[in-house]
Specification:
This protein has 11 helices and 12 strands. With 245 residues, it is α/β, with parallel strands linked by helices. It has an 8-stranded parallel β-barrel with strand order 1-4-5-6-7-10-11-12, surrounded by 7 helices. The chain starts with a strand and ends in a 6-residue tail after the last helix. The model has no long low-confidence stretch (mean pLDDT 92).
Length: 245
């Protein structure tokens, strides 16, 4: 059954949400990202998904201090991405407390660097397959490739990465529902590698639809719907088939 990953996106040291990856369409939710992390854990979250938006835009980690505070203060595993484009930056993120690291741009532009990341960090590495207008987007969703998600997953699945995170950029932050068809295609290409989904979740019915897919989904990342109180962490976990303590 899919696990729930509340999202904490950090921009300018604060927890925000963007709409469709647009840095100009952002909303502030918490002045301190650690407050968001503690809230989700207090409500029952067992994992967190943290994104360094500043790092994604600048091409290097900017908010490792906040990662370290969240990893040390939340008490649950933290998945971290944004600006991880060198082997050293991945090691720095792991050193700051990341349980898993999410690699986007490098996976599609510098496969030799990706190989080095996997060699040093093994199955901690997850590949971000961020899809906008049907093709993979990179550089903080600011650039587009000509590669489709199934092509990307197929090409990368045998390189040793620990799994994939499929994001529908077109739906991200809109709460208008997940792209289950595209998710199912990505899962088919991933084989046995775990796949997490992100983008457009706005209701418990959306979570139930993902949990009901014949493909095995490892997790669902939810941001805006939790911040906007469309549903609780506990109800989300139940909708995904988890059994909260």
């Amino acid at each position: 059954m899919p696990a729930l990953y509340p999202a904490i996106d950090i921009l300018g040291g604060k927890a925000v949400r963007l709409e469709q990856g647009d840095f100009e369409r952002r909303r502030l939710y918490d002045s301190d990202p650690l407050d968001a992390a503690r809230r989700w854990v207090a409500e029952g979250a067992t994992s967190l998904h943290v994104v360094d938006l500043d790092g994604a835009r600048e091409g290097r980690p900017v908010n490792l201090e906040h990662l370290e505070r969240i990893a040390g203060g939340a008490g649950v595993p933290v998945q971290f991405g944004g600006g991880l484009r060198t082997v050293d930056s991945v090691l720095d993120a792991v050193g700051a407390g990341a349980d898993r690291v999410v690699i986007g741009t490098v996976a599609f532009t510098q496969p030799d660097v990706l190989d080095g990341m996997i060699e040093r960090s093994g199955d901690r590495v997850r590949i971000a397959v961020d899809v906008r207008d049907g093709v993979v987007a990179t550089a903080g969703w600011l650039s587009r490739t000509t590669v489709t998600a199934p092509e990307a997953v197929t090409a990368l699945r045998d390189r040793g990465a620990g799994g994939f995170i499929y994001t529908s950029v077109d739906r991200d932050g809109t709460m208008r529902g997940p792209d289950t068809e595209a998710l199912a295609e990505a899962c088919a290409s991933a084989g046995d590698a775990p796949v997490l989904y992100s983008g457009g979740i706005g209701s418990l019915e959306d979570l139930e639809a993902i949990a009901a897919l014949p493909a095995e989904i490892a997790g669902v990342i939810v941001g805006k719907a939790l911040y906007e109180r469309r549903f609780s962490v506990t109800d989300a976990r139940l909708a995904l088939g988890e059994e909260p303590a």
